Write the structure tokens for this entry.
Amino acid sequence: MIDMSTDSSSAQRPGLAGATAYTSLSHVDGQAGELVIRGFAVEELATKASYEEAAYLLWNDRLPDAAQLAGFKRSLVSERRLPAATLALLQAAARQSVAPMDALRMAAGTLILRNEDEPASANTAQRDALSVVARFPVIVAAYWRLLNGLEPIAPRADLDHAANTLYMLTGQEPSGARVRALETYLVALIDHALNASTFTARTIISTQSDLISAVTGAVGALKGPLHGGAPGPALQTVLDIGSIANAEPYLRSKLERGERLMGFGHRDYKVRDPRTYVLSFAARQIYEAEGRLDIYQLAIEVEHIAVRLLAQYKPGRALYANVEYYAGLLLHGVGLPADLFTPTFAIARTAGWVAHSLEQQAANRLMQPQSIYTGPLNRAWIPLHARIAPSSAGAILPHLGE
Ligand code: ACO
């Protein structure tokens, strides 16, 4: 259950900072730098659990035994096939070179469709929940191939979630090191309290809307560079810097221009994001396995320099590396192109969005924060012929109609 209680001081802070929420799914302690998912520290869960185990844990509040895990995996595998209409939509989007996150958002709306030979489900919520988790990787991989003029590759029932995701992109069975690295990423990002996309999902479902609408809205929220869109630019910064000697002048000039350093800063964490430890360790392993440790070492140095400069240019703001800094590095090491970083984040977060939506549904109250009006009052109506060219100050869409 969520109670968006705000006291008068928090209500005056933009971005709803200070609004409180209740959830038993995950807990963030921004001062201590801790993330707990269903009672497990993220460091433990991400390094030990498969994605299926973590999703089962989120939805059932307990780890599955062997039979339960096998059954859960079978249910997910049976939901992987995409209906013909979803594929047709992706083909049309690829012909117009739509960005992968936009294609994913459009395709997410088709998740209510069944395959023609599939019987109607007695439990729509359960079927939709499984379908969201199972089909997101299939949509992302199929779309990526279509965008690159290639035929989509059918999922393989004998491969688990992470391995199958990589397989569908290339048609090659991925190495164990790549699978484990992606799995660590997917579990580390599976849930994170009331982040912007999860809040979006909960808001949508709180109107007694449906799970597919909630998840589709969440994809739209995740896309922005202040949320899930940061890992591509964060990695690009490291690649553009190219050498340790170039790091300080490059970052300094960005900060001098008033630009934000992508992959740094967080609304909750005032210390290093705990997920950066997990992802940085996994990234080191994959770069070592692939013989490209130089990129990893450069990223570590760039982080140190960025944190020092942020403290100098933004004193007192406590800006440290966030999950996206190492997410980009890790996914690059796994062989994913930067355009797939945010869609892969969406794949990871599906189980969390579903869990939050169902938790909201189970003890629902309409989400509706208060607003404080800051506009004018008692305006006198001016007849059309008497209006002189207005100033555009205060306009949200200036020049509209001019
Ligand atoms: N680089 C430079 N300055 C920054 C950065 C940054 N990465 N992040 C925050 N600041 C500065 C702001 O300019 C602001 O300075 P000011 O007080 O002089 O105006 C101050 O720190 C506070 O910034 P806010 O935007 O108010 O902080 P908020 O808590 O709302 O934002 C956010 C958090 C959006 C993540 C921010 O730190 C940011 O833009 N980071 C870069 C984008 C990024 O990495 N996003 C991924 C976040 S993780 C995730 O969503 C999974």
Notes: Residues 15, 226-227, 230, 260-267, 310, 314, 317, 319, 322-324 surround acetyl coenzyme *A (CB under 6 Å). The longest strand covers residues 26-29. Confidence is low (pLDDT under 50) at residues 1-11. Residues 231-332 form a domain with the Cytochrome p450-Terp; domain 2 fold (CATH 1.10.230.10).
